Amino acid sequence: NRVVRLKRRPVGMASRDDFEIADEPVPQPGEGEFLVRIDYVSLDPAMRGWISPGRSYVPPVEIGAPMRAFAAGYVEASNHPDFTVGDAVAGLLGVQRYAVSKGTRVAKVDPAQAPLPRWIGGLGMPGQTAYFGLLEIGRPKPGDTVVVSAASGAVGSLVGQIARNMGCRAVGIAGGPQKCRYVVEELGFDAAVDYKAGHLDADLAAACPDGIDVYFENVGGEIFDTVLGRMNLFGRIPVCGMISMYNATEPPAPIRNIRSILVNRLTVRGFIVFDFQDRIAEANEALGRWHAEGRLKMREDVRQGGIDAFPDVLNELYTGGNLGKLVLAL
Ligand code: NDP
């Protein structure tokens, strides 16, 4: 079994030296457990937070422990009543070739309905994040303007499409012309703004002539500040992520437009997809249905290179090297 273990807590961007990657014996499932051979590992921006010290929404990965990750594969041996050899499964299995599971945070998936990587992407945790964050916290109404950052990514790409399905105007913020074209031409967003072009505020104003009712926040920093300045009265901001700050070694800059929260009576609310654990079936039903109807396009950016490529591929998320849900094939 090839396993990525955390060796030390990184400062700034994680590097290969922060992990120990080694061959170990394949674990054997005990009573009530099953063995999964993992084919795809999900790369998630949150991974940088999971290996940081300090208080968060989950305990950090311990030094010496396998790196936490969502992954998908097939059951190879089972002593568990609900999982059978040959079942396709996805869930929290770690960055490793084989994992033993008791079935906690692991579910059976249907490879006939969608390829395996999609079950750790749009039909998995990132899809559920878009669904609950937008609908429960963003509360979009038909005709609203919904802006989402990291718009071409795993979560953002779905947020804009779900907003469109709800009768909203969807505007994406993404880095570079290729991603902006993808968001409009392939995903059907109404407009996209390239924050790297250097005039985000003016471009946002042009793309949102009626202001912004919902801002689905994925990145934080300067983009958050600029969008704040264009929010409408009683606007909602689901705070899903702040990727621009995950590798920061300096304190963040002050937010110039913070007063917009008061003046416009904004609702700014953070959330974690796990908050909605008891309603996962509802999200899965809606995501599966829209996907089958062609109203939710999903794209996986699958990288080769196996377990050893993990640290380098992970960093693509923080430099914008991915287009769509970033997945490592083992
Ligand atoms: P993506 O597929 O969107 O990949 C990350 C993207 O973020 C990059 O492609 C890049 O796009 C953008 N990005 C990276 N650095 C910066 C930066 N400094 N400034 C602006 N944009 C940047 O990842 P996910 O869809 O998996 O995650 C998106 C967000 O959702 C993250 O913040 C993540 O932490 C959060 N999240 C939160 C969850 C929750 O439960 N609250 C669950 C899952 C995800 P570009 O090239 O356009 O800059």
Order of helices and strands: EEEHEEEEHEHEHEHEHEHEHEHE
CATH architecture of the largest domain: Alpha-Beta Complex
Give the biggest sheet. Answer: 7 strands, mixed
Distance between the termini: 12 Å
Total beta strands: 15
The CATH homologous superfamily of the largest domain is called Medium-chain alcohol dehydrogenases, catalytic domain
- Bound ions, cofactors and other small molecules, one mention each: NADPH dihydro-nicotinamide-adenine-dinucleotide phosphate
Portion in beta strands: 15-25%
Secondary structure layout:
Elements: E1 2-6, E2 19-23, E3 34-42, H1 46-50, E4 70-78, E5 88-92, E6 98-101, E7 106-108, H2 125-138, E8 145-149, H3 154-165, E9 169-174, H4 177-186, E10 191-194, H5 200-207, E11 212-216, H6 221-228, E12 231-239, H7 260-263, E13 267-270, H8 280-292, E14 300-303, H9 310-319, E15 325-329
Parallel strand pairs: 8-9, 8-11, 9-10, 11-12, 12-13, 14-15
Antiparallel strand pairs: 1-2, 3-4, 3-6, 3-15, 4-5, 5-7
Bound molecules: NADPH dihydro-nicotinamide-adenine-dinucleotide phosphate.
The site of NADPH dihydro-nicotinamide-adenine-dinucleotide phosphate (NDP) has 30 residues, from helix 2, helix 3, helix 9 and strand 15.
Organism: Tepidamorphus gemmatus
Domain Enoyl reductase (ER): 14-328
Pfam families: ADH_N_2, ADH_zinc_N
